[in-house]
Design brief:
Number of strands: 10
Oligomer: single chain
Helix content: 40-55%
Structural class: alpha+beta
Number of helices: 22
Strand content: 5-15%
Radius of gyration: 33 Å
Length: 514
């Protein structure tokens, strides 16, 4: 019934257009299969009699499909390459609805629906497939990035998931090192790398934003891998034609040519081929839901974390949206903030101001970092300019030294407080400069000397970790950091409980208000 309304889109004689038409036909078949499987289960006669279908049947189909998207349920009829049921996502819902809508509308416009008795209300009840709002992908986590860059796993991608050696591994490594879009890498020409001034460069087209012939610097490892891929592509051309390509043919050849109906090697492998084989690899590694485009976000976040500005990232990646750039900044800032909070030095009231007490290490696992964060949060309480480690105060008791934090040996500074203490040091220096005489100025310098030592120690610790510039650029001591301390000091739990008991006493007489 549904297939009778399908009209094939008109395509050109070019192989690329034929592949695009093939992709549309695949989605047409999926749209028909999804709807037919549902109607077979719920409609009268298994959905084979068009005259029995109603608007309610289509609405139930739409509701069922939306539920599968929300709850991550599998499709009724579609299976993935590995044989498992394909999970319905926001993207598959979008093109399933839209392609089914085109098919049914064509049947309505051509009169085919009227001929077979398919009600118009059934067709018009199918809505447009809207683009998912939450389509933005986060960068790869450290664990996932390690797995995806492991040499053994990369070799597994080449041997098991690319037996015909189309260059899937080479394309993936190019994505990781350059942060290009998938299609920009897959459509690379054979002569896409060269050296200029001894530096290896990659030449590519950023077709999405209209930039052509763009060059970016690439690492030596990627340069050598692409050179090997060039030799493989040229060898296959010679095996097929019995001669090397002419200079004109070489200029038109793709770096990753498809082996289907492509005698001169001008057409690249499709994104669908790369995506499917990459996804098989991801499923075998059991990494959850990952897509290749996350490599672009990972590179952008790493660039930002290592000091590159947003304008540098936009220029290197080829025009990212302002919203995506803000997303990179939030991720990088959150990671830096998390590290700065874990760098502790002794405060000015200790015997050794500025002595490093705690510091995250590069070799620390994620589990160890989480355990450290929990331990530090339990053993300290936010204070002005730092953290209090005196346990009675941490548990909520009043400070016995009237909040004299700078003179207390239980007070520590963190990397998040560096900017605060820089401002404090400038204030003391300004006071000393305005002193009426040298004796007063020397006294002020002497009073602030322990604090200055602590600040110097904090700077040295952050510089050793490569975080000094980030600490100076980020004021991380936020107002909400003081809420717990304010609550524990101003509103004692025992006092609130006593007040509650008094309010519950019906025989208690109210005091005179004064």
């Amino acid at each position: 019934m549904i297939s009778s309304g399908i009209t094939s889109p008109t395509g050109s004689d070019r192989p690329r257009a034929q592949r695009e038409e093939g992709a549309c036909s695949t989605r047409d078949r999926r749209a028909c299969t999804e709807l037919s499987a549902f109607l077979e289960a719920v409609a009268p006669g298994g959905g084979h009699d068009p005259t029995l279908l109603t608007e309610e049947h289509m609405r139930r189909y739409v509701a069922d499909h939306n539920k599968r998207v929300r709850e991550g349920l599998p499709s009724l009829a579609i299976r993935a390459v590995n044989g498992k049921p394909s999970v319905v996502t926001g993207n598959t819902r979008r093109f399933t609805f839209n392609h089914a809508r085109v098919i049914l509308r064509n049947a309505l416009d051509s009169g085919e629906a009227e001929r077979i008795g398919l009600p118009r209300t059934f067709i018009t009840a199918l809505p447009y497939g809207k683009k998912p709002v939450d389509g933005r992908r986060n960068p790869f986590s450290d664990e996932v990035a390690q797995v995806l860059s492991d040499e053994g796993n990369l070799q597994q991608l080449a041997d098991r998931h690319d037996p015909s050696d189309c260059g899937v591994r080479d394309a993936w490594e190019a994505l990781v090192f350059t942060g290009r879009r998938c299609t920009e890498v897959l459509n690379l020409r054979l002569e896409c790398v060269s050296r200029h001034g001894g530096l290896p460069l990659l030449w590519h087209d950023q077709t999405k934003v209209g930039n052509y012939g763009e060059a970016i610097r690439i690492p030596e490892r990627l340069y050598l891998r692409i050179k090997e891929r060039q030799l493989t592509t040229l060898a296959r051309f010679e095996d097929r034609h019995g001669r090397p390509p002419t200079p004109a043919e070489t200029k038109q050849m793709a770096l990753f040519p498809t082996r289907d109906r492509n005698p001169h090697g001008q057409d690249s492998i499709s994104y669908t081929l790369f995506r499917d084989r990459f996804q098989q690899w991801i499923n075998e590694l059991d990494l959850g839901r990952c897509v290749a485009h996350q490599a672009r976000h990972t590179l952008a976040t790493n660039l930002l974390r290592h000091g590159a500005g947003l304008h540098h990232i936009k220029q290197y990646l080829g025009q990212v949206s302002g919203r995506m750039a803000e997303h990179y900044a939030r991720v990088a800032s959150a990671e830096i903030e998390d590290v700065l909070h874990h760098v502790w030095v002794a405060g000015p009231g200790s015997a050794h101001p500025g002595k490093l007490l705690t510091s995250p290490t590069q070799s620390m696992s994620r589990e160890a970092a989480r355990a450290m964060a929990v331990d530090l949060s339990r053993s300290s309480s936010p204070a002005e300019g730092g953290l209090c480690t005196f346990q009675p105060v941490v548990r909520g008791d009043a400070c016995p030294w009237q909040l004299n934090c700078e003179g207390c040996d239980k007070f520590v500074m963190s990397g998040a407080d560096l900017l605060y203490w820089h401002r404090k040091r400038e204030q003391w220096r300004s006071l000393a400069e305005r002193a009426p005489d040298d004796a007063t100025a020397d006294y002020l310098h002497q009073v602030f000397e322990p604090t200055s030592q602590a600040v110097d120690g904090l700077e040295k610790a952050l510089a050793a970790l490569g975080l000094l510039d980030q600490a100076l650029a980020m004021d991380l001591r936020r107002p909400q950091d003081y809420f717990q301390r304010l609550w524990s000091i101003a509103f004692r739990a025992s006092g609130l409980a006593a007040a509650g008991e008094q309010n519950d006493d019906p025989d208690r007489q109210p005091e005179d208000s004064r």
